[in-house]
Amino acid sequence: MSVFFDLEEFYNAFNGEKGVLEVSEEGRNIYYFTVAKTEFPVVIAQYSMHAREYITTYLALEQIKAFIKSGKRGTVYFIPMINPDGVYRVINGDKLYKANALGVDLNVNFPAKWGSGKSNVQTRGKQNYIGEYPLSAKESRVLADFTLKVNPSATISYHSKGEEIYWFFNQSSEDRIRDKILADEISKLTGYALKFTPDSAGGYKDWCIERLKIPALTIEVGEDYLSHPIDKRFLPQILKKNKSVITAVTESKIWN
C-alpha cells in the first residue's frame, strides 16, 4: 500500500467537511479537510510540498485525528498533500525528487522576493527551480488562491528534515514580536530549534508573512541523520513531538 492509498482511504472515511481543492498538473486530487471548533482563529496546515518529504502526509492524517479529539477552538484547514505528482515520482523510484511534475520547486514559486534565494536555479529539475514567474506552477496557484479565499490567521507548513522551525521573513517589529511568541511556543512543545534562513525566498511561509501579515511557520520534522524519503517506521517519533502542534497554534496566547 502507498501513501496515496492511505490518504484516499482516510478521505473516504472522513465524516467532516472535506473536498478537492483542484487537481494537480497530472490530474491527481489535492484533498483538503476542515475541522471547525470555533470561527477564530483560522489556520491552514499544508504538507508534502516537497515530494520526497511525504512522511508529512502521514503526520497530517494523525494531526487531523488529534485536533478532532483535543482541539478546543479555531477552524483548521488541512491540506495533506499539495504536490501529489511529485510524491508519485518519489514512490516510483526518484527518491530525492522535490519538485512538481513540471520540475518547479513549489516552495520557491511564491511572490515573496521571488528568484532572490541563494539556492535558486533557472532551469527545470528535481529541486530549486523557481518557475517561469511567481505562481507559475498550478499547485502553487491553487494553494495561494485558497489561502486568499480563507484569509487565515496563521499558516503551518510541514517539511522534512532537521527538526527546525523557520518563522522570520522581514516582518515589521510589531508583527515580529507576535510571530516570535508563537514560534517560541511551538519550539518549546516540539523541542525544535528556531532558525533563520536569510538566503531563502519565494516560499509559501514567506508569502504568507509578506502578503497577509500573519504568523507563518515552516516546521522541519525528522532527525537530520534520516534519509529521504523518511520511512514510515519513524512516524511515531515524529508524531510524539508534533501531535499537539495544531492545537497549540489555535490555543496560542497571541490570539487572546
Detailed description of the structure:
- The chain is built from eight helices and eight strands, in the order αβββαβααββαβαβαα.
- It has helices at 3-13, 55-70, 84-91, 138-150, 173-190, 204-212, 235-242, 245-250; strands at residues 17-23, 29-36, 42-47, 75-79, 154-160, 164-166, 193-195, 216-221.
- Strands 1-2-4-3-5-8-6-7 form an eight-stranded mixed beta sheet, with helices on both faces.
- The radius of gyration is 17 Å and the shape is globular.
Question: Which key features would you list for this structure?
Answer:
18% strand, eight-stranded mixed β-sheet, 8 strands, alpha/beta, 256 residues, 35% helix
User: What composes the largest sheet?
Assistant: 8 strands, mixed
Order of helices and strands: HEEEHEHHEEHEHEHH
Question: Structural class, from secondary structure content?
Answer: alpha/beta
Distance between the termini: 44 Å
Query: Could you estimate the helical fraction of the residues in percent?
Result: 25-40%
What amount of the residues lies in strands? Answer: 15-25%
User: Which term fits the overall shape?
Assistant: globular
Would you report the number of β strands? 8
Strand order of the largest sheet: 1-2-4-3-5-8-6-7
Work out the helix count. 8
Mean pLDDT reading: 97
Low-confidence stretches: none
Q: Taking Cα atoms only, what radius of gyration do you get, to the nearest Å?
A: 17 Å
